[in-house]
Amino acid sequence: MDPIKLSKEIHNDIINWRRELHKIPGTGLDIEETYNFVCNELTKMNIEFITLSKTGICALINGENPGPTIAIRADMDGLPIKEETGLKFASNNNCMHACGHDAHTSMLLGTAKILSKYKSILKGNVKLIFQPAEEISAGAEPMIAEGVLDNPKVDRVLGLHIGGFFPEVKAGMIGVRTGYTTSAVDKLSVTINGKGGHGALPHLCVDPISIGAEMISALQRIVSREINPLHPVVITIGSIEGGSTWNIIPESVHFQGTIRTIFPEDRELVEKRVIEICNGIASTNGASADVVYDKICPSVNNNSEVTKSFMKSALKIVGEENLVYLKEPTMVSEDMAYYLQNVPGTFFFLGSNNPKKGIIYPHHHPKFDVDEDVLWIGPAIFVQAVLDYNSNL
Question: Where does Mn(2+) bind (predicted)?
């Protein structure tokens, strides 16, 4: 069984699936067209599946020999972005696959097509997880709660992300690392309640704008003065709302932002200090603050043993020159983290930016695209990893 040969033989199928999926994106759990497309393709392959979490799909390929279960996960949802790629198969429904999830889904379908024909040599099972709502970190947890990692129990899990998160991982290359690989993401929302009045009489008011400015400045000192300088932390305030005109002090100001951490201990410290600082500054200035700190998603933490095993499999597909060990994690988040909190596994990156083809735009950009020439690599690596896992039993 040659995973490279088999994947290249169905490369056109993978591309066609990707293009069909690209036309019909949805967001969150509302991805009914994508869900129906994947269900129809799995049915054509005679692969059994069940529905979880409204539009999530758990398919199972039963090997004809006893053994453990390895899961492979792909996310399926898009983003609320109006597409500007100019592609013939561009979406026209004001949603867009601007993060490559259409490619993830098509590569998992390719993996399914190959493995479904080789049940006779498989030991144990391969579980295929097609997940909605990754972009809002609301897909993995519900599917896990509904049993996607059970019946049969998953022993190992793999997943990938396509695109250009890491400049050193060029088109056709694989990037991977052990340990923390993506950041945790949390959301901060603060409303400062002051006392409004005339802009010429600030002593009769409690100015929420100046208080907000003080808060935002103080929050940045958490990063520069309270965190180990070797630990990445990002506090970004993305929006501020308050005031109506130039000479009126408003009653309230609202701001919100994103907080990114790699290490769990930093995440706990930042949450504690953000709440203390916002409430303290508000109180000191005679105002009050409503502080909401939402924990959205933890860090992806790749298991060392599984990752080292995976790297050996990837080496067989892309060669040493195209296998990159990532020195640092990325500060983007991924709810693949929830699977890895429950099951040992690894999450890796497939480079698909290609300046020669004009494929240069970052994730979440209205002109984001992927180099389709690399799509065969995903199934080839997944199949090779399954075979190697089986051979070590």
Answer: 99, 101, 135, 161, 364
